[in-house]
């Protein structure tokens, strides 16, 4: 999603963003309500009134999607899963989770929370509209009644649609949780649940195509034609998301058996702490072509210095400062043993914000593992 997005606020401590594509949906929903649905349901009102009501309804739908995502986020936070942000975009909303759920049970509960919020909201809105209709059947309340039942129906649809068991939809996550609990293999479960996602993507696309063709032949009403196009669109989205998840799972499976020793750089060049930054740049960064070096003295690891650390220092100070002053100090987080799985090393890099780790065996440096080396390794082996 290369289009811009804007932060509009925070909820549960999570920043909320609106993606540019969301405005397309907002305009589409507002205009189709203002020119079709509302004049049909509430004849005799002024055109600005229809547009005003359409806009309010679209905003309330946006709020419904947000509450759905907050449902997922609330449960995820209870499992200590950080939520980086919630983005609202053309296909609804997405809560970006910082890591995978720790257990099938956590996955199940997080996945169910969103549709549950939508179904409860739907029931409350529909129930409220029905009660209002019974108790106060006044003409002035008709607009509220129409908006309430529309909101109720959309929330029920939102809940039910997301329960389609194709990964990465919520229902697909429920399926993955089940498969994961069954075969005890997270990546295999993802792969299988995404295969079902591919199937539903194709099915939605086909249903959309049939609806569209039927409409062209005049057998169906006008409003279903737009739904047909929309179904094809959603089918394509689900298909590509499921395909990406399946590939990701295959990569993770391949990586699960890979150890740090297999991907690390064996020939490690180290810097001395009392060398000037200028020296380090001229003699090491430029000529050796590495993005960072361990700093050692007397066989002891003192830290790591990277291109980023050098860039943070104004160029005029390069001849005056020493590597020791700008390096990142050695810490247990910086060092890993060679028999660790690569996945674990990548998790460590992700958590610590480092792009390279020093591989130590018997208190000696035996290698260096970097994000780019892992990427190159995987690229070569894919070929
Ligand atoms: Zn959801």
Secondary structure blueprint with pairings:
Elements: E1 5-11, E2 14-19, H1 20-41, H2 47-78, E3 83-89, E4 92-97, H3 104-135, H4 142-162, H5 170-183, H6 186-216, H7 222-256, H8 260-263, H9 277-288, E5 292-297, E6 300-306, H10 307-311, H11 323-326, E7 328-329, E8 335-336, H12 342-352, E9 356-361, E10 364-370, H13 371-382
Parallel strand pairs: 2-3, 8-9
Antiparallel strand pairs: 1-2, 3-4, 5-6, 6-7, 9-10
Bound molecules: zinc ion.
Zinc ion binds at residues 68, 72, 114, 162, 170.
Description of the molecule:
The structure is a single chain. The longest helix has 35 residues, at 222-256. This protein has 13 helices and 10 strands. The protein has a 4-stranded mixed β-sheet. Strands 5-6-7 form a 3-stranded antiparallel β-sheet. Strands 8-9-10 form a 3-stranded mixed β-sheet. The protein folds into 3 domains: 1-163, no CATH class; 181-256; 260-382, CBS-domain (Roll). Strand 9 (356-361) and strand 10 form a beta hairpin. Helix 3 (104-135) packs antiparallel against helix 5 (170-183) and helix 6 (186-216) packs antiparallel against helix 7. It starts with a strand and ends with a helix. It is an alpha+beta fold. The structure holds zinc ion. Zinc ion binds at residues 68, 72, 114, 162, 170.
């Amino acid at each position: 999603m290369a289009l811009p997005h804007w932060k509009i606020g925070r909820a549960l401590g999570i920043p909320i963003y609106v993606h540019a594509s969301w405005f397309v949906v907002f305009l589409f929903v507002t205009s189709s309500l203002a020119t079709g649905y509302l004049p049909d349901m509430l004849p005799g009102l002024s055109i600005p009134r229809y547009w005003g009501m359409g806009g309010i309804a679209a905003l309330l739908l946006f709020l419904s999607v947000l509450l759905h995502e907050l449902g997922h986020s609330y449960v995820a936070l209870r499992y200590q899963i950080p939520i980086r942000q919630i983005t609202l975009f053309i296909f609804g909303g997405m809560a970006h989770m910082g890591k995978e759920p720790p257990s099938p049970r956590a996955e199940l509960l997080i996945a169910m929370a969103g549709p549950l919020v939508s179904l409860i909201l739907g029931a409350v809105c529909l129930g409220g509209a029905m009660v209002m209709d019974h108790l106060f059947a006044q003409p002035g309340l008709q607009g509220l009644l129409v908006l309430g039942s529309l909101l109720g129906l959309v929330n029920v649809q939102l809940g039910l649609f997301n329960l389609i068991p194709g990964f990465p939809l919520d229902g697909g996550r429920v399926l993955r949780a089940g498969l994961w609990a069954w075969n005890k293999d997270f990546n295999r479960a993802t792969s299988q649940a995404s295969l079902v996602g591919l199937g539903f993507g194709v099915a939605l696309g086909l249903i959309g195509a049939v609806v569209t063709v039927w409409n062209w032949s005049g057998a169906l009403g006008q409003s279903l034609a737009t739904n047909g196009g929309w179904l094809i669109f959603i089918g394509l989205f689900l298909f590509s998301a499921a395909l990406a998840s399946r590939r990701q799972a295959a990569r993770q499976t391949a990586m699960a058996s890979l150890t740090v020793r297999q991907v690390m750089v064996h020939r490690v060049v180290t810097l001395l702490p009392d060398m000037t930054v200028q020296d380090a740049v001229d003699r090491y960064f430029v000529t050796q072509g590495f993005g960072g070096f361990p700093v050692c003295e007397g066989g002891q690891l003192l830290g790591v210095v990277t291109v980023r650390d050098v860039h943070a220092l104004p160029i005029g100070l390069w001849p005056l400062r020493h590597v020791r002053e700008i390096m990142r100090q050695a810490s247990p987080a910086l060092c890993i043993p060679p028999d660790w799985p690569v996945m674990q090393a990548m998790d460590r890099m992700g958590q610590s914000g480092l792009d390279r780790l020093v591989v130590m065996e018997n208190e000696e440096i035996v290698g260096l593992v970097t994000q780019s080396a892992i990427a190159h390794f995987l690229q070569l082996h894919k070929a």
